[in-house]
Predict the structure.
Amino acid sequence: MPLLPFEASFEEIITHPESYIDSVFSCLESEFLIMPKGAGFIEYPVFEKGYEKLKATTNGFLRLDSSDILSAVLKEPIVIVVLRSMLGFTPPEWGYVTTQRTGIIVSQGFIRTLDRKIRMAPDAPMSINDDSRKKLKAIVDTACDLLSEGIPDVDWQQLHRLDKADTKFGIDGIANLADMGVPYAMLLYERFLGRPFAGHRDSVSELIGDSLESAIEEVLSNAGISFRKTRRAERIAGFDQAPDFIIPSEFNPQIIIEAKITEDDGTARDKVTRIQHLGELSLAGQPRDTPKYEVIACIGGRGFGVRREDMKKMLLATRGKVFTLKTMDKLVEHTRLKEFRTK
């Protein structure tokens, strides 16, 4: 019996699915310990510089004057990133709270663009128009108010977002922790609640997926195979959701490739469901053994190695055509892609 599912017949996979599930699991690799930095990554010395600027501006966090902090932000924009870290908010959350408290509309688009612009050039003084300055002032005002106030009373079954070691007791708590240092146990507890590098991992999720798609592109290009790589949310006739790759083109789809790296089993399940749907579309109005196009899955990450039943569904939907980064070199040889090879 062949070791890998794409080397087996569909009948062998149906007869011995557990063996082929094991073989795919053995090829899955997880890179969750390593993340790409990506454009706009803030190195610690840069972040620390912003922290020290904010600390000096506020006299060791004893006085949160929004006008002084706004001036510091305009001179050294990285200060705004430090201020957001103290709040523990995402940019859209900060924008929403600002709009709610000040009545000045700070849209997601505005604050996301502002955040990215700062991360791309954290040391470059900001030059903004009057409207943007008004919004930026509202953002800083809101942060100063929230950090000064501390947390309000909430129901015992609820947890306030500012119920953190540094912000729970308002400005006094911030000043005390800045002076003495955060207890390590509390720091670890807050990391446990939010998981380390969560914000950065979310911001580079597309880059993590790009490594697999780039590997597929390289294989196809090296073989001289014509292909169409779709864009996110692109509409393709005949598909309710555009596949990641179509060979040779969307006008004559003969092979469909779906690609995904995930460390989360829920996300993996969603992709399995998507691949099952493509398998069903390929057989609509067709004899069982002659699908309209071949469906191939290229996967990575520990998320796909959690549920055996999901892997079985994927193997059946693709007729065994499941590949990982470790088996990517066999992609052309063991699929219909070899029919389109020109090199």
The CA atoms of residues 74 and 217 lie 43 Å apart. The two ends are 31 Å apart (CA to CA). The chain has a mean pLDDT of 89.
